[in-house]
Hints:
Blueprint: H1 2-25, H2 38-44, H3 59-64
The protein binds zinc ion.
Amino acid sequence: MKVFKYLADWYQAKRQRYIERMKQQGKCPICKGYGYETIANAYVGHSIECHSCKGTGLYSEWENSN
Length: 66
Ligand SMILES: [Zn+2]
């Protein structure tokens, strides 16, 4: 299925660019540097610490957890 591969490649490239941008800004790509999970926040109604960066919002913490 060429279409699926195309979409997967496109998604990967987009994700890669996004991560690269977050790296330049020193921000965790998961929470965009906020330190908490915004999706969970919307559901639960209060802030939940981002697992990936341990609530620091730092790219370096995210990188360490990968
Ligand atoms: Zn984070």
